[in-house]
Structures
1.
Amino acid sequence: MRWVRFSNGNGPVYGILEGDHIEEVSGDPFTGFERSRRTHALGDVKIEVPVIPRTFYCVGRNYAAHILERAAKRGETAILPDRPEVGYRAVNALIAHEENVVIPSDATEKVHYEGELVAVIGKKAKHLSEADALSCILGYTIGNDVSERTWQRSDRTFWRSKNTDTFKPMGPWIETDVDLDALQTTVRLNGETTTEFRTNEMLFGVGTFISTMTRYLTLYPGDVIWMGTDGDSPDLKAGDVVEIEISGIGLLRNKFVAEEPF
Amino acid sequence: MRWVRFSNGNGPVYGILEGDHIEEVSGDPFTGFERSRRTHALGDVKIEVPVIPRTFYCVGRNYAAHILERAAKRGETAILPDRPEVGYRAVNALIAHEENVVIPSDATEKVHYEGELVAVIGKKAKHLSEADALSCILGYTIGNDVSERTWQRSDRTFWRSKNTDTFKPMGPWIETDVDLDALQTTVRLNGETTTEFRTNEMLFGVGTFISTMTRYLTLYPGDVIWMGTDGDSPDLKAGDVVEIEISGIGLLRNKFVAEEPF
């Protein structure tokens, strides 16, 4: 099942996508819903961010190749994480499928994409074993962890390198029927494939993260966990279009534009 | 004016505290409200976390003495930050005034308090000058940035050292009429004063942070910014009661208890 959050004149509502049509629901997939029999053509609505998370978790350094490549570029020796440790991103930075990533006027040329699988929590969860960990998941969507690498290296925190407004595209929708081992992530820049990897070849998988996290913290419906990225990105500039496709989930597309003077 | 979020049988509602009585309102201080003429004695209600933030910002290393003392304890040379850089905390960890901080069974003895001023954003804001920065603030409350120092040093992120469930007491209410320069923070452990500092003697003040942050990001109503702490904490154990008082705002009190077996 595919959950789409969209607007069509009024405020955002949820619907179930079947083919090219959305059946609107009252309520939402987290607290309960009823089908309405009101349908919309997918092309007639504006797709919104699929969920505004209560807490926005994000895993860094979770694919060996990505860690090794980035360390080699800096002439450093890579150290692979020996345990799952989650980080955070900020809600202000979220944008939807087809919305524009705005590159600040003082950013350097080192603006990169990171194509990521996103786990969307559907049920309150604490103390889940690894065997039960996936039981709290509603479904999966796609994220682009846009990063300004010069700021990422020079700043003490990720506040502007990764959380500048518009730097966190997420969508287009939430797919509930997913075989993690079958997923393939493909990133295209202006139509050409620039990064490809098996989505589930993570150092620590979704279940390991959820089991470890819920030893100490409660996950809530609507929380999201971005699972990290593999490979490397070319430098992006205004006019570029980045598509992140994860087979079986969908395709997240965003154009990069220059900041207007303010 | 003091905004209290409380429950009294039903779900949380907002009210205005005058003396020992709360006048309940419909709505909230962020999107609009109407007075109801329903009043409650402060002692008859359960005080809730004053706001569930959309984004939970938290400043680290913002008082010179705190940085110098912690570095000296580790035998390291302190480096003071040369610019304001904000970090993040997680909503799962929030608890209210008089709720218990639960120390995980595998935590070390190095569990510490950090008494902090909290700025609560009332209006959407971007590109604020330093002169206008405080115009987006609804008011101020108090936070205790409880930290497990062994995990803080050994982990790559603050996920469990600072964001374990119950590690972020916030409250008791939001005070809108505040003279920042007049504030004094006092922390008491089991009734004895253990830390005292002038609240506004920060390396970078509230206005400087908001002006810098809004160059890159939009602040939204309900966002909170915890402003960092001064001084140092003794090791805390089950049974301890920590009170953080900021003159002119209020007093946040929480007991520390041991985790029950799960």
2.
Amino acid sequence: MCELLGMECNVPTDIVFSFTALATRGGRTGPHADGFGLAFYEGRAARVFLDPNAAAQSPLAEFLRNHSIKTELAIAHVRKKTRGHVTLANTHPFQRELWGRAWVFAHNGTVRGIKRRKLGRFAPIGGTDSEHAFCVMLEALRTSFKSYPSKRTELREAIAEIGSELSAHGTFNFLLGDGRALYARCDTKLSHIVRKHPFGHATLTDDDVTVNFAEVTTPKDRVAVVATTPLTVNERWTTGAPGTLWVFEEGALVASLPSRVRGKRRTPHP
Amino acid sequence: MCELLGMECNVPTDIVFSFTALATRGGRTGPHADGFGLAFYEGRAARVFLDPNAAAQSPLAEFLRNHSIKTELAIAHVRKKTRGHVTLANTHPFQRELWGRAWVFAHNGTVRGIKRRKLGRFAPIGGTDSEHAFCVMLEALRTSFKSYPSKRTELREAIAEIGSELSAHGTFNFLLGDGRALYARCDTKLSHIVRKHPFGHATLTDDDVTVNFAEVTTPKDRVAVVATTPLTVNERWTTGAPGTLWVFEEGALVASLPSRVRGKRRTPHP
């Protein structure tokens, strides 16, 4: 299993505080020592920092903790491998271009038998079930819409639907970004918080670090953070109901879509 | 205009020495201060470090100079913009997946009127002529072969052909990687060197740095380096003839294909 971290905001925001918690779980307070990745969006483009080494010991993770890169949308992942070797090709988040946008995906869980699902335009580079699932998802979107949908509700519903469908293969918690929104699916375990005015203090669960957000924000700022488990001890996080797809835009939860599949199968899909 | 740097080897090799020279040209000894990128392959996967800031001042470039990442294939670029704003989306090298492989591309020159060329499966995320040309190239390969060609000579010839065709739009020096080979096209300016036993000393043109390669190699090692202009003062670099596509595999020049287009047009393509 792995841990996920996503951030989506209405102003460019530094992810260092939350990433510090995640990186600590990547081999120190948590067992997720099989690589990590952190994607930052700038408009429709993303840059993805990847390292197949443990985040807690990685010089790259240290660099990212020490150098503020502000972004409105970030997706991070620390890996504890269940399927696939520890290689760069198997390191989340994965990235593909669709409709002239970078799509970034990170997964927590295992989707069994997914490799029997037919691929279309997108093919996995590595050997994980996660990347295969990402390719199947993007193909489903590509065949549903000619271009990036102007009706965003339709896109959200399509993502919720393919997410529910693929979750029949096992456990499918994921974060997906398209440069405009963060789509966060809770299958078994995912929490979120929206920080906004009046901002308070927060202390990390995994490290002796406290931030007073009031000092680093303006009253108009809104920052949504999603994580496998809450990252702070003194804030109120919302736990996801199984099967829910949350959609965040401009730092706000703009949609919360229920699961589309009743009586989810736990056996491999034919 | 920009500067290109590529490295292709038969053993994982550190690119720090050559990248130091390139990064220096990115805003100090050269005017290429509009961002830089450095892609490292590991098998069929690549990780691409991108920064829209000047390499000579970038903390990320400093990190990459100070932390050895060994690879058999790397592609780097420092940008002096001619077309497109200074943004992450316009920062080379560009990356796309085709046939379950990461393809990485960096361009030096300007290809005018290229945006009138029809796109297929691949679409640019940013606004450069370079990324548009990359998308057109990949689409040409995709429609020529069902999967990654087992006959590599056919793939090389296809790359040489589309390279020559697109060079009719202007200046098309490029580096292209597929995880197995480095394809380096000289249109107006490109040099290469293959370092092999017996290894000697080399001193950078742009910085007071000397390396004795004999100390960091074994007699079996072979390292090919390609750059817009030679990076060292005391080695013999080979200058490309206009229109040539060099192909490097396992640290050796395995093919040198001449231009396919006679009487190249210098005016925009209809």
